[in-house]
Each structure stands twice: as C-alpha cells, then as structure tokens.
Amino acid sequence: MAAVRHHVTIKGVKDGLVFLMNEHCEFNALLEELETKLSKTHHKLLSGPLVHVHVKFGKRKVKEADKDKVLELIRRQGNLMVKTVEFEPAELPDRNRLLTLRGMIRSGQTIEETGSVLFLGDINPGGTLRATGDIYVLGALRGTAHAGSDGDETAVIAASYMQPTQLRIAEVVSRPPDEWGVTDTYMEFAYVKDGRMEIDKMSQLHRIRPKNPF
C-alpha cells in the first residue's frame, strides 16, 4: 500500500516547530491541509504555551498574498509565533537545452519535455505540449501549450499561427484569444507581465529577452 504524501509536515525541533510545505502540490490543497491540521488533527499538539514556528516553503514560488494566507492561518493559532520563513533558491531554467520535435500533436495526445522545445508542426485542438522552458511552434498552435511547467513565469510561448485552446505559463492561464487585441497573422508570442498573460509580435521578443536565451 502506497504511503500517504502529506502537503504539510510538522516537526518538532529544539527551539519550536518546523512547518515543511510540499513544493509540488497545488497551493489550495496545501492551504486546506494546513488549516485541517491546525484546527483538527494537530490541535492538541499546537495548543498550550508560546511556540516558535519556522516555515519552510522549499523551492515553491509563492506570491506575497499566498504567503500571507499561510502565515495568517498559523498566527491565528494563539500560541504560535512565526519566527522564520525560508525559501530554497530555485534552479535556473535550463534554456541551453533546446529539443527539436517534428510532426503533429493530435487530439488526446500530450507531450511533456524538460527544457525548451522547438516544435516543427501543428498542435491540434485537444492536443497538449508541455515544457519546463520555452515553447516555439513553427506551425499552427490550436491546442494547449504549457511553458514553464515547473513554475518558471519567465518562459514564453511562440507560434507561427496562434489560435490556441489554452496557453499557460507556470500557473498563469491566458485570456480568450478574442481578448488579446492582436489580429495580424505575424508570428506571436505569449509572456507573463505583472501576473497576467500578454501577447505580442515575435519581433518584440527582444524587449523581454535582450540576450540570446540559448
């Protein structure tokens, strides 16, 4: 029987408690488990005299508002005082690894790769291409493309013909294509700015990538 993988692990240390946050699970699932442990399963352990708490997020990229939600839940427990909040430095995306793929991604097919991907062909509706780095499609992108799948919001998605079912960079999901405001047939790319997906002509990529990413 497989062991249960916890989203939040609470350990006792010499000067208090360490809250280890799973860096791979969905944030809402982490928040839900934290609230359950604080209010139910670990309530007796966490009640009593003042206890210092060290919160460790690992390599998870956490928005300031989400970090505040976690700390507020902990502080709501009257005897818990957050002493430190730690993040491990995230590994830089390996954009030096550019994988070239050819063919067609049909409905129901999903291709996942590490690094950046140059795809020579079409991605049909219902097909998905996912990469931890950038995605460049020399063809029609009508399906789903997910760049920066490990949480890298600096990744981009580009296509010769951009009419996707969905674009996703890290956890940021695109607006519907009819809201992009770009109607020309030039090669376009998607990127994240201030937490929002933006679309621009490929000729403007140098504005956010002043140096050769490869």
| CATH class assignment of the largest domain | Mainly Beta
Q: Biggest sheet, strands in spatial order?
A: 5-7-9-11-14-15
**Helical fraction:** 10-25%
Q: Biggest sheet, open or closed, and with what strands and sense? A: 6 strands, mixed
Straight-line distance between termini: 44 Å
Structural class: mainly beta
How many helices does DSSP assign? 2
Element-by-element helix/strand order: EEHEHEEEEEEEEEEEE
Average the pLDDT over all residues and give the rounded result: 84
Gyration radius over CA: 21 Å
Strand-residue proportion? 35-45%
Based on Cα principal axes, name the global outline.
elongated
Ranges where pLDDT stays below 50 over 5 or more residues in a row are: none
Counted beta strands: 15
What is the oligomer described by this structure?
single chain
CATH A-level architecture of the largest domain: 3 Solenoid
How many separate domains make up the residues? Answer: 2
Which fold name is given in CATH as the topology of the largest domain?
Pectate Lyase C-like
